[in-house]
Design brief:
alpha+beta; Glutaredoxin; about 55% helix
Amino acid sequence: MDSATFDFFYDLSSPYSYLASTQLRGISERTGARPRLYPITLGGLRKATGHQIPPPQQLSYMAQDTARWAQKYGVPMQIPKAFPVSTILPLRTVVAAARNGGGERAMQALFRAYWGEGEDISDPALVERVLRDASLDGKRLVAMAAEQDVKDELRKNTDLALARGVFGVPTIFVGERSFWGNDRLEFVESALRQAPLAK
């Protein structure tokens, strides 16, 4: 019997993507569905959809709001000193890690480093160390981030997100039904319980 799946589109730069990522394991344990992870570039999404970077007032609200969610989930959360930063390099290392089954481990380690510990994940040396500490070959993955096929795959993920109507992250799909934001995970779980097992 095939397991059900759900698609998780995210960018490491998104605090709400981080918060949602901390809940994926629980959703899988409760529903039997496994996540398919799609790292994308929020900058590319914004450029294509015309969305702007949030104004200072919204960023101030987000700092308070994400702290509330982190307390609810029981996970560490802080606004990094270096924010925003380019997440292109770490996203590409996640793409590279996924080729050997390490995509989720790389994603979780980098999310934790940035949003849990406030580290600057645009720093290649830091990315290498974080991945190494997650029992991945950090040096090799950082090197692979410069390979054209890895760059192309990240771009294709972003194009796929746009084609499926994604305008922000995290966006989760159960079949063709989309749910935007970590505050919609309850609906994701409900949809998974109702969905027939799919390939």
